[in-house]
Amino acid sequence: MDVFSLSLWGLRILFVVLIYAFFFFVARALWRDLRAGVAGAGRPLARLFVIEAKEGRPEPGTSIPLDAVNSLGRDVNNSIVLDDSFVSADHALLTFRGRAWYVEDRGSTNGTWLNGQKVGALLPLGYGDEVQIGQVRLRLERERGNE
Amino acid sequence: MIAMRRALFSVGIRPHLRWRELGLLTIVALTLVVGWASLQSFRSGQLEMGEASLLFTYLLAIFVIHTAFVITGRRMDEILFPTAAMLAGISLLLMERLPQDLVTQQILGRELGLADVQLAWTLLGFTVLAATAILVRSDGWLRRYKYTWAALGIGLLLLVFVFGEVTGGARLTLVIGPISGQPSELLKVILVVFLAGYLAENRSLLSSASTRVGPFRLPPLPYLLPMLALWGLALAIVIVQRDLGAALLYFLVFLGLLYVATRRASYVVLGLLLFLAGSAVLYLAFPHVQDRVDIWLNPFTDPQGAGYQVIRALYAYGRGGVLGTGLGAGLPQVGSVPSIPAIHTDFIFAALAEEMGMLGALGVLGLYVLIAQRGFRIAATAADDFRALLATGLTLVIVVQAAIIAGGNLRVVPLTGITLPFVSYGGSSLLVNGAVIGLLLALSDRGVEPPPPDQRTSMSSRIGRRARRAGGRLEEALS
User: Fold this and answer.
1) Residue B226 belongs to what H/E stretch?
2) B45 to chain A: nearest residue by CA?
3) Which is deepest, B235, B244, B305, B380, by most CB within 10 Å?
């Protein structure tokens, strides 16, 4: 077999191989999308670390997983129950909208405080920021593994 | 760079890079260049690209379309377009390889051969694809006028019934002055638009009720009537137009949409029973249907006559084997006569399987599977019923058509003369399939305007409101 027919054969095979390479890259792209979807589902978006709670509930030192929408208050129907005598029944709302977290007060008696500042309207908060509700101090923390 | 971005932003255009599409298009370009080199080297007996302006015109065109998508900032599916570009590119390689005098056209004093004409149609088809994908920003014009679309479709069909010219035993082609086209290609899209609108509207209303005929429970009338109408339409197409492929395609696409809309397998079974009954009657009553089935079952009873085409195709698969003979090395002609009649249209799959082998042919079929995956995904994530059904229908049109003709070529089902989407030679087919992919892309764009809420109020609520108002006035007068 001379060089020419060998290289022609190579070209032929390469042609078919490249068509399958196309599939490989599509499959890889789809697989990545799928993995990102699976990894994203079922994992909390972030955590709330309990720095201090005068009455011990929730327990200081623990961290609470967060969904996209979290209601905080003393009432048991809240997604995060803060059992503290200075916390209103429906106290505050912590939401993840698009790319940022927001905190808002739900007309509580003693107010919600973000880094020592009283929360009036909707306020954005970043990771590491401290939220005080009644006698409970909480810190927003990044979920490990989320970027 | 930043200044350019600002300038674009100020006129309301936000460019959005599409790396995935760019990467896949690069692989497409590489594949086609290698294929072209393999073809030209075989022809000339030395390693060379030969005269490759045809190939590079095509590659330039697909990258220009990619750039247009990027600049207009459309966030559409990034896999569909490279897939279509791969199919159309393989088609160009095959057309370049086949005898050029299968199709000739005089344009501006130049004689264009098969590959040139196919390139022209492909470019036009892709222009339609890009224009549809970029410009369609709302689907209201499709969903609101569904009965107008249906009327248009029926009108088109009647035109073909009356004025159509017979090509290859089927009354398909409509000639208006210098322009000729095959309206059945356009009709399939119109049919999908109508069915999507109709099924989306009636879906929630009457999904539970059913018609009783004696001991049988039949689907509710809103499903039963279009099923019977389409069945009748398909029969009419077979009888008058002798176009078995189109009839089969329309009916299968309808059953697919019906299943997606209702999730009732029983309707599909009923539809298939209707199909079997219709086929049996047609088989007994019409010789041209009988011929098709006989050729399918026993091609070797008349090897030089009716079975010639199918037998030649079978030989071609045998010559091709697993790896294929290589582009250019197959045996598409004996003397100056193509060994398989209609090799550039109906039997393009045989040409492809001979020269690219079983692996290449499976690869091409895989490309259609990709289109199906993307299309059904677009349907699954669609904003509402109409869009979901539209995306499903458009996908089915391409995929079912590919399955019918590839199956026919492989003697899995009786042969019917329709095109292999994007690969067969043919202007109408390329234009319409371009529009189909363009619409799918537009539907995959989250930015496409959501449908306006239905403003029209129903008759009963209007009467109710009038009655209340009248009652109110009466009460005022009395008090």
Assistant:
1) helix B221-236
2) A4
3) B244
